[in-house]
Amino acid sequence: MAEAARRAGDLERPTWIMARQQTAARGRRGREWKNPAGNFAATLVWQPDATPAEASLRTFTASNALYEALACEVPEARLSLKWPNDVLLSGGKVAGILLESSGFAERLDWLAVGFGVNLAEAPKGVHDAQVPPVCLRDAGFEFATDDLLARLADAMEEGEALLERKGFGPVRDAWLSRAARLGEIVTARTATVEITGIFETLNEAGQLVLQTSTGQVAIPAGDVFF
Half-sphere exposure of 189 toward its Cβ, with a 13 Å CA cutoff? Predict the structure, then answer.
């Protein structure tokens, strides 16, 4: 992500950057992200003609794309998507997605979408995770990083084309068909409040919609606990 930000202003086309090894990995909201050697870390950076709100919907195109890339080898029954941007393998976190952007006007200057996947090893010493980290190798699935990048790049290209051609609706429907705990009770924690309710849907802005005892609540950002 740091390299993508450094190069973004000079790029003429969408560009993938893959790290063979990371020494300063990070997750959402500046959280530490552990990425042992042999795992997958790659970022797609480009200059979409999009507002910040439109760009944020790429969280879901990216989640769908990574799901599809992994589903080439992993049975879909073992994969699910956790709002807003994690991929689960048999209920454990196998991958995370991070969006960063730049732009102070109505349109973005650039957008970077980063992917971290536990291919070879799950991070050790993670005690505060919402779901335990897992890795694909321990589950019996082997991926070469270059092969995964090729599959992911193709899926991202298809997802971006679908979003531009038909809007968020089909992207949203695909994401919901893969969502973890849809129709079940979950807890969403934001910076200021904790809300528990039935995970009902995503709205057209990609917000988590919970049905609570006082009615529907739409949550624009936060973390979900099962």
Answer: 5
Domains, in order of start, for the chain: 2-176 (3.30.930.10), 185-225 (2.30.30)
pLDDT digits (tens, 9 = 90+) for 159-178: 999 999 999 999 999 999 99
Question: In angstroms, rounded to a whole number, what is the distance separating the alpha carbons of residues 32 and 21?
Answer: 15
Query: Over the stretch 17-62, which tens digit does the pLDDT of each residue have?
Result: 999 887 766 666 556 666 778 999 999 999 998 999 999 999 999 9
End-to-end CA, the chain:
29
Q: Per this entry, what is the length of the chain?
A: 226
Measured CA to CA in angstroms, residue 160 lies from 33, 55, 98, 123, 152 at distances of 26, 11, 16, 31, 12
In the predicted model, is pLDDT for residue 223 greater than 60? yes
Average confidence score pLDDT of the chain: 92
Beta carbons within 8 Å of 174's beta carbon, 6+ residues apart: 64
Q: Which helix (H) or strand (E) holds 3?
A: helix 2-7
Contact 157, 44 (CB under 8 A): no
CA dist 94 and 222 (Å) reads 19
